[in-house]
Design a protein that fits this description.
- There is one protein chain.
- By secondary structure, the protein is α/β, with parallel strands linked by helices.
- Helices cover 39% and strands 25% of the residues.
- β3 (113-117), α8 and β4 form a beta-alpha-beta unit.
Length: 363
């Protein structure tokens, strides 16, 4: 069983310099030993970071309420009822969604299928353990397996903190040459170190930055791009015959990506709730993540024929759901003081309401 540092070292020995995207891929997803493969308890107070799911069941319940509305639209159109979650981690969010639907929308629950996109056998085992009470759950390794022999399907596909986990290219600005270069990773003695790659892979969002901005951009300014995330979203959009794609993640629009406060980009490493800029240290032992460029993801979906219904903050999205609930309280169920506290954590700018965005696209 090969540790991420060993796999990275071997590739550098062969290639000389590897892209940071490849470094990140091996650090996070190296079979059996990558960061996301080794332990399931990475989330929550005892883990490395907190997510909307770890706040409590309220997040999943609000999503379930919205999903039920969207599924009813498909039901009226006589389409199949399916929710697809990509990046389900240990299955707790799926359990929160399905639990609410089972109680409050039993007819819909009995007709629908919940599919988890999960290529990792180990993570599948974690998910199956938490989803034993729900017989209408199945697993698919990739997008191609969604259609069950058909190229397209109907329903909802969503990911919560999915896109930020795709490997990113780390790009730097050379002010003298007026061009972008790509940071890669090499060996410096026994340590991993930064090195320039000769042929950077540039994203369309970076290529279309206005020249007036580039003229004043500081030398060495760093941006991240994730062609892998854009490609995956475009492919997901291509499989959808009718329904919606939704991404919930922390990120910015292209216009917001440039800021004097982010000279070194948005890539961060997390371990035990501590944030560090030492991205190359201890691969496999710390989470690596970058903010999502939502403009690039939006463009990818639109290029596949989707229409953008919403690109807003998480507080805006969840508040709109709650406004509908308060108009018809009986449609949601009892609202407790505990749920109010969870909602405040999900939406308050000092907690999870500051950086998270929601993109909804449909066909």
């Amino acid at each position: 069983m090969k540790m991420p540092s060993e796999a990275i070292r071997e590739e550098i020995m062969q290639e000389g310099v590897i892209s940071f995207a490849r470094f990140m891929e091996l650090a996070l997803y190296c079979p059996e030993t990558g960061y996301y493969e080794r332990e399931k308890d990475k989330v929550g107070r005892g883990g490395d970071f907190i997510t909307s799911v770890s706040v409590g069941g309220m997040f999943g319940q609000l999503l379930a309420f919205q999903f039920a509305e969207w599924l009813m639209e498909l039901r009226i159109a006589n389409c199949g009822l399916r929710i697809v979650e990509a990046g389900a981690h240990d299955g707790k969010l799926a359990a929160d969604i399905l639990g609410w639907l089972k109680i409050h929308r039993p007819e819909l629950f009995s007709e629908m299928e919940y599919v988890i996109l999960e290529p990792s056998p180990r993570r599948q085992r974690w998910q199956r353990e938490n989803l034993k009470p729900f017989p209408n759950v199945r697993w698919a390794e990739n997008l191609a397996a969604l259609g069950s022999g058909h190229p397209q399907w109907h329903g909802i596909l969503f990911g919560n903190e999915l896109l930020d986990a795709f490997p990113v290219r780390r790009l730097g600005w050379d002010a003298r040459e007026k061009q972008w270069f790509e940071w890669g990773v090499q060996l410096s003695g026994e340590r991993f170190a930064w090195a320039r790659l000769s042929n950077p892979v540039l994203s369309s969002a970076i290529l279309h930055l206005p020249s007036a901005l580039l003229d004043v951009l500081p030398d060495g300014y760093i941006l991240e791009a994730s062609p892998a995330a854009e490609d995956w979203w475009r492919a997901a959009a291509g499989t959808l015959a009718q329904g919606r794609l939704m991404a919930i993640d922390y990120g910015f629009t292209a216009a917001e990506m440039i800021s004097p406060s982010r000279l070194n980009g948005t890539l961060r490493a997390y371990h035990r709730h501590r944030v560090t800029d030492d991205l190359l240290a201890d691969p496999g032992e710390q989470d690596l993540t970058a903010h999502v460029n939502f403009s690039a993801i939006q463009a990818a979906g639109e290029s596949a024929g989707l229409r953008t219904e919403a690109l807003c903050s998480q507080p805006q999205f969840l508040t709109r759901i709650v406004e509908k609930i308060f108009k018809q309280p009986e449609s949601f169920g009892q609202w407790s003081a505990k749920q109010t506290r969870q909602f405040q954590t999900l939406t308050h700018p000092d907690h999870l309401g500051r950086a998270f965005r929601v993109l909804v696209q449909g066909r």
